[in-house]
Amino acid sequence: MKKTILKAVLEPTEKEFEELRLRHLDVISFFRDIPDRESDDAIIEKFEPVNVRDEFEYAFKMFSKSLEAVLPRKEADPYIDDYKYTGKKLLMIRNNYGGVGQSLREYGKKVQQLIDDYNRRDCR
To answer: Phi and psi at residue 78, in whole multiples of 5°?
Structure first.
């Protein structure tokens, strides 16, 4: 009985997966009107307005929290590449516009953990 209750408390719920899906859509929507997602110049231009940068940073933060809530479950795997991509672009945007937002050090650790977990899973 206790194991069942503990498992239910620790396992992500459908609600958490739905929240992750919606937050993923929100953070990726910032790049929909950019034809080449790897064009740093186009991204820098898109994020010139401060309010767009602030909204993106908030969307990334919420996406990151949702992803963290469901990791290391395999259902989170489809979101990892976009997490890494948006994190890199957030750093690039901050560096370009001299943003003094919070440190991404905590996200760097999470990305490293994702890479390590992925490598461990592939070695099995």
So the answer is: -65, -15
Pair of tokens at residue 17: 């997966």
Q: Give the position of tokens 């050090």.
A: 105
The structure tokens listed for 46 are 């898109």
Rounded to 10 degrees, what is the CA torsion of 105, 21, 47, 61? -30
- The whole-model pTM stands at 0.70
Q: At what angle do helices 105-123 and 77-97 cross, to 10 degrees?
A: 150
How many residues does the structure list for the chain? 124
**C-beta of residue 61 within 8 angstroms of C-beta of residue 101:** no
Contact partners, residue 122, CB within 8 Å, separation at least 6: none
C-alpha 17/C-alpha 2 separation (Å) is 24
Tens digit of pLDDT for each residue in 88-109? Answer: 999 999 999 876 555 555 667 7
In tens, the pLDDT along 38-90 reads 899 999 999 999 999 999 999 999 999 999 999 888 989 999 999 999 999 99
| DSSP class per residue in 93-114 | HHHHHT-----SHHHHHHHHHH
